[in-house]
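DOMAIN: structural biology
WANTED: fold as tokens
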Amino acid sequence: MTTVGPGRGRGSPGDREEGAATVLVCALLAVLLLVGAALGVVAAMVADHRRAQAAADLAALAAATVLQRGEDACGTAARVAADNGARLVACTVEQHDVLVTAEVTGPRWLGQTGDLVGRARAGPEPGPAG
């Protein structure tokens, strides 16, 4: 007959802690996975915002260039924005300046639904004051 030593029998306090490390590791892995997914969303949002801003900058520069030649500034801005993966949301001509707003579809992970916007202004350098 085998005898069980102290603290080793059924229901002893030492037995209740078996598997606690497994639960802790699983919980920490879940938190790590969530943090990694959130960082992925943030990185995608930053990249898409940069893409929207670059498209707006290029569209505004192209529009200001053709405006100086008397051509359709906003039509050119729309084409350049589309060529850079963005949609032209707004285009305004103010005297010799062109103001452009371009939009890029943002990531749709973890409930994100917003699109990212870039704004730019381009035109000739102002002359000397006075």
About this structure: The chain has a mean pLDDT of 86.
